[in-house]
Design a protein that fits this description.
By secondary structure, the chain is mainly alpha-helical. Helix content is 80%, strand content 0%. It is built from five helices and no strands. The termini are far apart.
Amino acid sequence: METISAMFGDTLWIYTAIAGSLLGAAFLFWFKDTRMATWAVGKFDHTCEYLAIRWGWTWLQNDPNAWRVKYPKITSKIDELEERIRRLEQR
């Protein structure tokens, strides 16, 4: 009971958490457009690809047809256009 009482009595942790979150978000907003961020994302992607190939971790690999499930209207339109092109080429 003393712990709960002390936690709600001492609210400094709330303010430091909020300030830390805001500073972290501001830093990430600035950092995302830098060359260092592009490099870091490339290294992370290369590491995940290496692990997926080296140890066969298929859960790290992207499904190449995942966009078909995510965007069904675009998928149906593309399929319709491909069928139309196929029919035109056969003539």
